[in-house]
Amino acid sequence: MDLSVENDFLLKIHTSYAENGAQRIEKAYFFAKTAHKGQKRQSGEDYIIHPLSVADILVDLGMDADTIIAALLHDVIEDTQVQDYEISDEFGSEVVLLVQGVTKLDKLNFKTKEEEQAENLRRMFLAMSNDIRVIIIKLADRLNNMRTLAFKDEASQKRIAKETLEIYAPIAARLGISSIKGELEDLCLRYLYPEDYFYIAEKIAQTKSERKEFVQKITNDIQVILDDLGIEGEINGRPKHFYSIYRKLKRGKAFEEIYDLIAVRIIVDSVKDCYAVLGAVHNKWKPLPGRFKDYISVPKGNLYQSLHTTVIPSYGSPFEIQIRTKEMHKIAEYGIAAHWKYKQGDTSSNQSLDDKKLAWIRSVMELQNESGDSKEYLDNIKIDLYADQVFVFTPKGDVFNLANGSTGIDFAYAIHTQVGHHCVGIKINNRMVPVATKLNNGDVVEVITSNASKGPSRDWLKFVITPSAKSKIKSFFKKEMREENIKIGRDSVERTARQKGYEASELFKLPSWKEYIKTKYSVNDSDEILAMVGYGELTAYQVLSKLLECRNKDVGEGRVKEEQILAKVPVGKKKSSDTGILINGMPGMKVHFSQCCTALPGDEIIGYISRTRGVMVHRADCPNVASLEKERIVQADWPLDITGKFDVIIDIVAEDRPGLVIDIASVVASLKLPMLSMEAKKTDRNEALAKITVEISDMESITVLINKLKQIKGITEVKRAKSK
Predict the structure, then answer these.
(1) CB 605 within 8 A of CB 634
(2) What are the tens digits of pLDDT across the range 396-453?
(3) Which of 9, 179, 210, 305 could bridge 328 with an S-S bond, Cβ 3.0-4.6 Å?
(4) Which residues make beta-bridge pairs with 609?
(5) Among this protein's residues, is 484 annotated catalytic?
């Protein structure tokens, strides 16, 4: 190990912390160094370099001594023989809690990577709700991992970068830590879209000297403005992050049209000075219409405050100016870390931050309790983190910031769960509007409630967009309408089972099924599972799939006989004349399969009464269903004894490479599935898009095929086509 790195760190902590804190940090460093002795990173360097680098990032953020100690020890419990109590004895119980909060769950067994990721996030947010320093350590940990990502294989680079861009960079943004957020996004761009990254880097390099000269001229002019006003201030240029440029380019802007490529910050002492400088700047240069934003009067949800304006000088291109106080600048760079203050010599981690400014953490905690499974939880977290915000007001003037695209119902649930449940109307700017109306910045929103309301409508789930509102509505139906949910779930599972030739009521008696639900859900009968289907937490197909797994096990072990669980075909129910499809439960109607989608036995289907061709059958998720006349849509079901061959179209996205088409064809051939056609093309981003049509006789064949295709090197996505 390079001892100069160690010496530089020790020198930094002794100049940044009081003597007692510096000595504790130094002790923690040598404790971690001993614990990790002999361990190496993939780069070949001593492992201790990683926790040392994480701690160094946090020192620059100005975090307290306990946070630095926890950063140095954050991998000790997971990767060495050191136990929790040893850390507690040496450094205190608070440090142990921080380390435990950061520790991943890699040593537990998870069925899927998605489940593992969700559980890691659940644990992290739980610890974060008690002490925000957990996530600040985790962000520094992820930043150092991204800085050293070059030593990973390409698949790992893309997986880690994708997770970072979807989860950790948005968390940094929500906490206002722009110094970490910007670097994380740029590193992700480097590994996920290298061609775009190097294109931007080249463009930036080409204009570097020109921009430097331009910024210097602007700085000189602004200094004259400050001198004339008698205001002391700091002026500096702000380099635009590559990822921010990338997002603008993807929205169709030309590189030359990105006005804030050149940005200047003016940092002054007071809010009064901010507005005085703004007025003088607008007198000096013409402001660009629609480009002024006052984040001082209405701060962002992550605490960010500043004035933004874009002006047009007599020389050069339009450029952005940001005006803020020194305190605002600290918050802009370090976010919540700038607000975290600790009493001298006190380890109780007292928080000086207004609780409202961390309201989104509470909403995340609600999602943990109300999300049905790992996928739903991950999806909700990503929606909550990514959402751009819209600021609206109550009639009393209270400000609420919601995800862009939110409706009156989202607003009602943001106020309080019971306000949402009892909402019967919405007023926007003193006018009654439909409850699904989207909110705009500055709207004054009033929620009309009634105690006579029986609760939310299921239709609300079709248009609310905030995860919190969705979870609260689902939770209402889960708790308040249990009997109805059980009935809905039972009908759905029974219908799905009979399509496969089985009797659901008999499948529920299987010994393996009873053992499964007791272990997985701690219940002794299937009503709770059926209720979960009724309120949308599980699908009938998920339940049937597990039931058939249990059936295979029990039949194989001789615990039950196959004929015990087969469905009894109702007397008199025959296949309809053409296809066997039952319309409104009745056979015999003239039926045609629509050419716009690929309906297969087991798919949910609907019928549409056409004017000339009888009933047209569509997949329920066919894109064209939304445009059909609702009064002409009828119930359609597969018959019990459906047989035959069906065409299915599979869409494939992959990294373009020689031999890809051959590998795809080989997988199809290995499964003895007739391949009727294949189309493939290359995109501008070196991706290959393939579409194959195969002939199958059951849904299981599709599942096996898709799973096999996903294992081919370079393939990133495989799914059934929604339409032909």
Answers:
(1) no
(2) 877 787 878 899 999 999 899 999 999 999 999 889 999 999 998 778 899 999 888 8
(3) 305
(4) 615
(5) no
Q: pTM of the prediction?
A: 0.52
Out of 6, 60, 78, 366, which one is annotated catalytic?
Answer: 78
The phi-psi region of residue 290 (left if phi > 0; otherwise alpha if psi is between -120 and 50; otherwise beta) is left
Phi, then psi, of 147 in degrees rounded to 5: -65, -25
Based on the residue annotation, tell me whether 79 is a catalytic residue of this protein. yes
Computed on alpha carbons and rounded to an integer, the radius of gyration of the chain in Å comes to 30
Q: Compute CA distances 55 → 28, 36, 65, 415, 611, whole Å.
A: 11, 15, 10, 39, 71
Sorted by sequence, the CB contacts under 8 Å of residue 457 that are 6+ apart come out as: none
Spacing of C-alpha 583 from chain mean position: 40
Q: Copy the structure tokens of residue 558.
A: 């001789």
**Which is the catalytic residue, given 6, 26, 79, 333?**
79
| Cβ proximity of 679 and 691 under 8 Å | yes
Q: Which of 136, 24, 34, 35 is nearest to 69 (CA)?
A: 24
**Distances from the Cα of 554 to the Cα of 434, 503, 513, 686, angstroms:** 53, 15, 9, 49
Q: How far is CA 276 from CA 67, 231, 281, 283, 324, in A?
A: 40, 9, 9, 11, 11
Cα separation, 484 vs 458, whole angstroms: 13
pLDDT tens for residues 369-411?
555 454 555 555 555 554 566 778 888 877 787 878 899 999 9
Amino acid identity of residue 124, one-letter, is M
For tokens 């309120």, what's the residue? 535
Q: Are the C-beta atoms of 433 and 409 separated by less than 8 Å? A: no
Asked whether 407 and 439 are in contact (CB, 8 A), the reply is yes
Q: Which residue is it, tokens 């029974």?
A: 494
Within 8 A by CB and 6+ apart from 353, the residues are 336, 339, 340
Residue 91: Cβ within 10 Å count: 24
Q: Which two tokens stand for residue 492?
A: 């759905």
Distance CA(134)–CA(97), nearest Å, equals 9
